[in-house]
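Protocol step 4 of 6: record predicted structures for both targets in the notebook before any analysis. Target 1:
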Amino acid sequence: MSLEQLLGHGEVLVVCGSGGVGKTTISASLALKAAQLGRKVAVCTIDPARRLADSLGIVIEGTDLVQVKDAGVVDGQDSGGEMTALMLDTKRTFDKLVEKYAPSEEMVQTIFGNALYQRISSQVSGTQEYMALEKLYELHGTGHYDLIILDTPPTRHALDFLTAPERMARVLDSSSLQWILNPSSSAGKMSFKLIKTGFRKVAHKLDEIFGMKVFNDLIEFFRAFDGMYDGFKDRSAAVKTLLQNKGSFVVATSPEQNPLDEAAYLMSQLNNFRMPLKALVINRYHHSVLNEQSQRPFAEEKAQESDAIGRCFKALLAYDDLGRGDRQRTQAALAKHGKDLDYYWVPRFSQDVSDLAGLRRVTSRMMLGDNHGPH
């Protein structure tokens, strides 16, 4: 299916790629297009620029779902579609999972008050990726939306995002520490005594540096989550199943070499994990304006002149060279893993995209033709 067909009929769309390539703008533009197609769509963004957040009605410090006014209007006519946006709150999403699986309110409060949990739920690498997928699963489960679009967190490595549910489930599995928490044999007790003595010395030094009750917090953390592991493990498997059966992945990149290399690696990993990769979006490319057969030779001839017209044509050729370079780099980097995918090109605009009008420009250019790979 084309990207427009995915927006019109899909249930889950995940936009991923390296940081700084405009994933949030692309995600919001796709959500806007889905609303224009008459669908009820929710887009979960990670860190929108403040002006874009303002245009979407998102309060940066807030966590509420906000309906974007007039998103479903096309040429003055209401399509019946709706666009709802929210900004991911990693800690709040984790808190809601704890509330779901904890056996009692007392245990919930114990976990919330644990210093190690407070750090893991808001600061530890991988938590944001996991909670982004959890929010996606939660929104899909409400049944309120035709389509959920997730703007994924920027990651240094593709595996950070793809393996986040499994890694987080393993973190919360206390079975590997049971021999410390509940030693049953005399040998175990001896090991526990020796390790506890050594760990306390290390923990005391960490306490001096970070002000944390390291050992006690660690023991309390795993004891608190003991018995909740199966719930997190089942949730992790459900998220993976949802992505494989109902999801579609779009890789966003820009035409610079580093983002292209990251995109190529991400595409290979999506294929390895059997995730449904559907399209590529190349954002902020320089649009070539000269036809190779006739217009460029003419421009090269005019550029030889020494007057103002010649200088203008030289500038035109220089810009055209940038566009050709963008195309060539994209083809070289992505051809191996993207040969069967549609490519969607979004040109570099003269101004930042920071309102609905800008998102509509992105959407209209993205949905144009020229979508069958780089050339």
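Target 2:
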Amino acid sequence: MVDELNGLNLPCSILAEKSVLGCVLSDNGKRDVLSEVSTTLRAEHFYIELHANIYRVMLRLSLAGKKLDTLVILNECIKENIFSDESEAVYYAKQLMDSAPSASAIVEYANIVVEKSMLRSLIIAAKDIINEASSENEPTEKVIDHAEHKIYGIREGEQKSGLTHIGGVVFDRIKELLELTKESQKNGGKPMLKGLSTGFSELDDKIYGLNESDLIILAARPGMGKTSFAMNIAVNVSKKYRDKAVCVFSLEMSKEQLVSRMISSEALVPTESMRTGIIPVDRWTGLTESAEVLSQLMIYIDDTPACGVNMIKSKLRRINNLGVVIIDYLQLMTSSIDYHGNRVAEISEITRDLKVLAKELNVPVIALSQLARNSERREDKRPLLSDLRDSGSIEQDADIVMFLYRNSYYDKNDPNKELCECNVAKNRHGETGVARIGWKGEFTKFVNVEFKQANG
């Protein structure tokens, strides 16, 4: 079929679209065949707007818990002015049902509709890429990034550009909420995490885990253990969700240094021993076993110095089943634009781009950040949002801001030497407050407080 976009031939299968709708109408609510395709097929996948509108009505009725009876569907379509009168609705419904010889084949028909939609998206994206590259109005790196973004979105089966009708989105969210409710009921009525668990129970209770598309800022003064905390989270996530890839971008430490810390934390071998090689013979078995466990985790480390968001994004797009991204740390990143020494403007652009990255890839991004020295001058040295270094936009762009603070670092007489506070100072999705975490400094390891107490 020839589209109005400069005569482009855009693929589609009118018969497959009719067959999907015909299957639902022919089923007449007996087997609920719509549920077999509703998670993958969206109204935006249909080429014919009439078919998209009918499909939205079906989704909405299903969401309301109504039986997908043919008469009910057609009556709703007439109310929505999709058909002008009953005779037109009945005539077209008969066409649709005649196109669907078997309701059991609805998944195959839906797959054809989705595939044709992806091909159309690919053609339109290619045209946009050619136009953008030909204009030479943007830096080459930005053009390449935009091109990768368009192709990545299609490969993931997501049409990220354009207006989307709210109906399909509402349907998806309610289905997700129903699944979450069922899981909560199975768990004795306790709240279920929507995101990935950090491995720290009190923190998970505050932020409901690491959630898709969130930009999480983890900040602390030097010596508080923010890199260790981030690496502990990386290992915890990778252990619990074996199919998820965890990507770490270390702009300060080498990959060898990071892995050495991970081994120390996992095997409970002092970091000093990891540096000197003076390790008791009886600890070697545990050390090699921990190294074996770590080697099998889906953790990827990149220690390229001074990399920018576009470079990070390009590398991440090649990772399958991405779970979490960790960047250590924000102030060492570079911008694609020369701000002539205006560090505040540069950091502002980087944090905005990191939020866009989290949203585009639909994964949580944890960015470590330095703090200004302001807290050192206060009697209470606990960090505040105003202490975030270089830019107020860090606080603005972040969904969650967390501060690590160990009072024993300043007060050597503090009886709680192994207690660390993780202060959730900003939380776009829930409450703020302090989560208590245990700290085993010699192993650069954070643990649950309950675990620490249970073992004395």
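Step 5 preliminary note on target 2. The longest helix spans residues 106-135. Residues 174 and 251 are 40 Å apart (CA to CA).
Proceed to step 6 after PI sign-off.
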